[in-house]
C-alpha cells in the first residue's frame, strides 16, 4: 500500500476560567500553530501530513504537549476525504491546501 497524504485534525475544548487555565490554553494553541496547524474554526485545527508514519509522530508530540485538563480529540483522514467537506454556511479558507501537490525545498 502506498503512503498517502493525510490530514490530521485536532478538536479541543480546554477550560479557560482561571489564569492558569488560560495560560495552558494559549500555550497549547501556540504549540499547534508552531507545529504548522491551520485554524479551520475556533478550537479546530488541521495540518497536512505526508503519510501515516508522520501522523503518528505528530500524535505523540501532541500527547506530550497537551494540557492536563480539558478535551482534545484527533482525527486523521486522507486528503481525498478531506476535500469532500461540504460547506453549509460560510466559505472555504484559501489558506488550507486541498490537493496532493508536494512542496520540495532544496
Keywords:
single chain; alpha+beta; Alpha-Beta Plaits; four-stranded antiparallel β-sheet; 3 helices; 32% helix; 25% strand
Q: Specify the number of helices.
A: 3
Please report the first level of CATH classification, the CATH class: Alpha Beta
Shape by Cα distribution: globular
Largest beta-sheet details: 4 strands, antiparallel
> Under CATH, the topology is which?
Alpha-Beta Plaits
Helix content percent band: 25-40%
Class of secondary structure makeup = alpha+beta
Strand content: 15-25%
User: What is the architecture at the second tier of CATH?
Assistant: 2-Layer Sandwich
Strands, count:
4
Condensed summary:
This protein is an alpha+beta fold.
Can you tell me about this structure?
- With 106 residues, this protein is α+β, with helices and mostly antiparallel strands.
- It has a single domain, classed as Alpha-Beta Plaits (2-Layer Sandwich).
- The chain is 32% helix and 25% strand.
- The protein is built from three helices and four strands.
- The chain has a four-stranded antiparallel beta sheet.
- The longest helix is centred in the first third of the chain and has 16 residues.
- The chain is globular and about 40 Å long.
- The mean pLDDT is 87.
SSE layout and pairings?
Elements (H helix, E strand, L loop, with lengths): L5 E8 L5 H16 L3 E4 L2 E6 L2 H14 L5 E8 H4 L24
Antiparallel strand pairs: 1-3, 1-4, 2-3
